[in-house]
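To whoever is on call:

I kicked off a structure prediction for a single chain this morning and the downstream step that reads the tokens threw a length-mismatch warning. I double-checked the sequence; it's 112 residues and nothing unusual in it as far as I can see. Pasting both halves so you can look.
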Amino acid sequence: QLQLVESGGGLVQPGGSLRLSCVASGFTFASYGMSWVRQAPGKELEWIADIDQAGTNVYYEDPVKDRFIISRDNAKNTLYLQMNNVKPEDTAMYFCARGQSRGQGTQVTVSS
């Protein structure tokens, strides 16, 4: 059965960096495109980045473009999100997703 386990969240100062990881199991990871989505307090779920099966093509929502980098290691069944120059508005629960399926999330709080 599909399982997605995120980690790497925490408290970070504005302008800082953080790397999120998501370990996948229960399916052939290399056969699926993957996404990162986030949900800020009181707001709807927001898609932020996609990556194709091979990691060749990536797509970003405008607010994170040029600051966040999505990547994957198919040998390790792991999806990553490198977050650079973070802003207070990046504060949210971050989830990795395969289609409509998501993990339990990891909390990112950006505050001084």
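Update from on-call: the warning came from a stale cache, not from the record. Cleared it. Sanity check on the structure: The chain is about 0% helix and 50% strand.
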